[in-house]
Amino acid sequence: MLQPLVDAFWNADVWLPPNTTWEDIAPGPHKVVVYADHRHVFFPIPLAFVFICLRFVLQRLVYAPFGKSLGIKDTRPRKAPSNPKLEAAYRASPKLKQPCGLAKQLDMTERQVERWWRLRRSQDKPSTLIKFCENVWKFTFHTGNFLFGLYILWDKEWLWNIDHCYIGYPHQGVTNDVWWYYMVSAAFYWSLTISQFWDVRRKDFWQMFVHHIATVSLISFSWVCNLHRIGTLVLLLHDCGDVFVEAVKAAKYANYQRTCDALFLCLIVVWIGTRIFMFPFYLLWSTTIRAPMLLPMFPAYYFFNSLLCLLLCLHVVWTFLILQIAYKTIQAGMMEGDIRSSSEISDSPENSNHNASNCTNNKK
């Protein structure tokens, strides 16, 4: 019953250039070109769970002891006293909006409600050691994957001349090293998409979730449609900047301020150079302007290009956040906070006084 829907979805007129069928790019022993096997698009999913397990082992045996040797403590905040009604209100909305109303309902003072709320919010915050381990894991992967990608692409003609991403398409073969680069990269982003729901929750949770989904979609569909050449360039460009993103945060958590400041300066240069200049003016320009000159367009190609445009929008948002941190760094004399700070907003004494004054005014 579902076969007609599947056939309609994978219509060759949508996913492939004109006059090309799926049989034309299907792998086979008697074909000169080694085509990508579309069934391999599912390989990264089980491999993602291998990454999650590997991360857990490294965190327990390597990253956590390394962080402790740097003086990072795995301290946990004090738990808030048990209060079912306040707990229900907190789960309904983690932000304290009406402390006066809660105080009246529970026969408590506003100060007591705010103090309980601060303690409860602190419970959800991971320790500095956990955040350090998460960043070191990502730094390890992005560094290794960038070096591996650079190594395997060094002798590929499309690294030096991007036109070769389109010349001869779709009859472009896949070598074993590119196969591994694609599968490992896809598995890592699948693992991030899965583990994001229990990792350190940050302000840009949904932006990162959209980024991971867009990346996984790009990798998957570009593999199926044999657009792996442009895909490898996108992966290489992203890994380069992500190395410094994770290094800066790890150095900050380890309280290596001078190292953090130096890495942050490198991050600004590399991030803006790759994400704001090379990505739109070299890669996206090529996929948008140059590609139509070298191969006939087809509907799925516009979908791929729209996902690249979505990534560019996310790059612009994150660049704005990084420049905000840079501006505050210049004012403070050192890098403060995290590039992507935790989503929890601290309940400072100033906020408490503000809330208390509002309650007093309401009572009047």
TrEMBL record:
<keyword id="KW-0472">Membrane</keyword>
<dbReference type="GO" id="GO:0050291">
    <property type="term" value="F:sphingosine N-acyltransferase activity"/>
</dbReference>
<dbReference type="GO" id="GO:0005789">
    <property type="term" value="C:endoplasmic reticulum membrane"/>
</dbReference>
<dbReference type="GO" id="GO:0046513">
    <property type="term" value="P:ceramide biosynthetic process"/>
</dbReference>
<keyword id="KW-0443">Lipid metabolism</keyword>
<keyword id="KW-0808">Transferase</keyword>
<protein>
    <recommendedName>
        <fullName>TLC domain-containing protein</fullName>
    </recommendedName>
</protein>
<keyword id="KW-0256">Endoplasmic reticulum</keyword>
<feature type="region of interest" description="Disordered">
    <location>
        <begin position="341"/>
        <end position="364"/>
    </location>
</feature>
<dbReference type="InterPro" id="IPR009057">
    <property type="entry name" value="Homeodomain-like_sf"/>
</dbReference>
<feature type="transmembrane region" description="Helical">
    <location>
        <begin position="41"/>
        <end position="58"/>
    </location>
</feature>
<dbReference type="InterPro" id="IPR016439">
    <property type="entry name" value="Lag1/Lac1-like"/>
</dbReference>
<comment type="pathway">
    <text>Sphingolipid metabolism.</text>
</comment>
<feature type="domain" description="TLC">
    <location>
        <begin position="130"/>
        <end position="331"/>
    </location>
</feature>
<keyword id="KW-0812">Transmembrane</keyword>
<dbReference type="InterPro" id="IPR006634">
    <property type="entry name" value="TLC-dom"/>
</dbReference>
<feature type="transmembrane region" description="Helical">
    <location>
        <begin position="205"/>
        <end position="224"/>
    </location>
</feature>
<comment type="pathway">
    <text>Lipid metabolism; sphingolipid metabolism.</text>
</comment>
<feature type="transmembrane region" description="Helical">
    <location>
        <begin position="262"/>
        <end position="283"/>
    </location>
</feature>
<dbReference type="Pfam" id="PF03798">
    <property type="entry name" value="TRAM_LAG1_CLN8"/>
</dbReference>
<dbReference type="GO" id="GO:0005634">
    <property type="term" value="C:nucleus"/>
</dbReference>
<dbReference type="InterPro" id="IPR001356">
    <property type="entry name" value="HD"/>
</dbReference>
<feature type="transmembrane region" description="Helical">
    <location>
        <begin position="179"/>
        <end position="198"/>
    </location>
</feature>
<keyword id="KW-1133">Transmembrane helix</keyword>
<feature type="transmembrane region" description="Helical">
    <location>
        <begin position="303"/>
        <end position="327"/>
    </location>
</feature>
<dbReference type="GO" id="GO:0003677">
    <property type="term" value="F:DNA binding"/>
</dbReference>
